Amino acid sequence: MTNAVSANTGRPSADQPFLLSKTHAACPRDNRAPSGAVADDTPPDDPLRQEFPDAQFGPNFISAAIELLKDTTPFSALALRLDNATGQTPDLSPAQMAACRLKAARAVEAVAKEEKAYWGLLNADTLSCILPGRDQASGVAVARKIQARLTALDGHALSIGIAAHPCLKFSPAEVIDNAAKALVHAAFFGPGSRACFDAVTLNISGDCHYDAGDIPAAMADYRNALRLDRRNVNVLNSLGVCFGVRQEFKKALTAFNAAAKIDPHEVLALYNAGLVHLLQDDKRTALELWLQAAPQGRDVFELNLQIGRCLLEIDQPEKAQGYIRQAAALRPESAQVQRMLGDVLLAQRLTDQAIAPYKTALRTNPNDAAALSGLARCYELRSENIDIALSFCRQSVDIAPDNGRAFLRLGRLLVKTGRLEEALQALKKAETLGEEARSLIVSVEERLIEKAS
User: Fold this and answer.
1) Nearest alpha-carbon partner for 247 in 285, 276, 273
2) 409: closest CA among 373, 375, 363, 382?
3) Does a structural domain hold residue 316?
4) Quick check: is 39 in a domain?
5) 199 CB contacts (<8 Å, ≥6 apart)?
6) DSSP state of 11
7) β pairing state of 158-165 and 194-196
8) Which parts of 247-396 are beta strand (E)?
9) CA separation for the pair 407, 434 (Å, rounded)
């Protein structure tokens, strides 16, 4: 698999998702998991159906193939699809597509006769060829022969996935489905490619199931992938992610640690292990793991953001600044990272520099309560735009009524503008939310007593 990082949203996490290493090009554009047969939905006037009326389709084809293969080992299965059917040459009309598919079927049928094979359709755009008594190497040879035949006919490329039986404990029907998964794998290599079913195939298939929200199916693919290649760090990481989103944190850490043991510089496994520790309120271990990953993870937005966040929370804004700036360079459009850059600069009292990122964050997300509060604090420290700052503070507590720091800043500004009774309410609210406001509360109460006397 590629090292491209993809963040998967909608998963339980501490503001950031677990990360998978995935190849987007390999997953179907409609985001369906690569599986074989569906009901026959081709119209009666389809050219392929008219020329080959006896060709079996979908479940009927698979049933006939299984009957043919009874007591036959080994065998290989091919899944074949014109490249434009996977979106690689989208300029064909439906009629042109039907004509090309018919030519592909003719090529498959001709080779099937020569090779004493059985062919049919897995679904509307996927042909299949079953080769009894043939191993994977023979399947590859037949795949090449079909591709050459089709090129001579029309010049259109055909991608092919190849799977063989026996393989692990897969049934004959599952091996046919494995060929369909290998076909999705072949898309990674470009038009006219072939791919043999292996651990990478199952990693891709698992990613597609994961994206579709089918975590159990994804885990089944990842586990089978590890049976084929137990040292595949990408698969170990992916399986760990599945455990993580199910909040089975002990199992998740086992998978992530196994990946990191094989490759101590595996950034995603280290990041994800750190996230598990963070979700269990172990920030110290999380930060240690993330700092371990940092030298190889400079291009990972989430890693830099989390390191910066942790360092800021333990009052090390000078160290945090470099990581937050790196995250901002990787994703400058992120309102979150711009607001955090403002927070880092404000924590160092660099108010002149903090104003710009806060404003950038608010242009992207006008309802960012923390950015509103931070910008108000900058204006307060500069003793300018106090009315605007007060307005921002009021907005921030309306948006985030559980933000103690926002109430503390509101209370300070209200004190500055002489609104003591309202300031006292805000400061008491800040105290109930965990902010240290006692001395200010006492001071305001004394002033109110003095004013009343």
Assistant:
1) 276
2) 373
3) yes
4) yes
5) 225, 226, 228, 229, 232, 235
6) S
7) parallel
8) none
9) 11
- Domain residue limits at 226: 1-30+198-297
End-to-end CA distance of the chain: 76
Instruction: Give residue 293's identity as a one-letter amino acid code.
Output: A
3-state SS assignment for residue 407 = helix
Rounded to whole angstroms, the Cα distance separating 287 from 307 reads: 6
C-beta separation of 371 from 339 below 8 A? yes
Q: Do residue 102 and residue 247 come from a single domain?
A: no
CATH number of the domain bearing residue 18: 1.25.40.10
Phi-psi region of 157 (alpha: psi -120 to 50; beta: other; left: phi over 0): beta
**R_g of the chain, CA atoms, integer Å:** 30
One domain for residues 155 and 219: no
Domain containing 171 — which CATH number? 3.30.70.270
CB 257 within 8 A of CB 273: yes
Same domain? For 103 and 241 the reply is: no
Mean pLDDT split into 10-residue runs, the chain, 453 residues? 34 61 53 49 77 92 93 92 58 76 92 95 93 96 92 74 96 96 93 94 95 96 98 96 96 97 94 96 96 95 96 96 97 95 96 96 96 96 93 96 95 94 96 95 93 80
CB neighbours of 361 closer than 8 A, spacing ≥ 6?
335, 336, 338, 339, 342, 368, 371
Say if residue 8 is in the same domain as residue 44: no
Long-range residue pairs from 63-71, CB within 8 A, at least 24 positions apart, any chain:
64/118, 64/120, 65/118, 65/120, 65/128, 65/130, 65/172, 65/176, 66/172, 66/173, 68/118, 68/130, 68/132, 69/130, 69/132, 69/165, 69/172
Beta bridge partners of 132: 75
Q: At what angle do helices 172-186 and 59-68 cross, to 10 degrees?
A: 120
Beta partners for 161? 79, 195
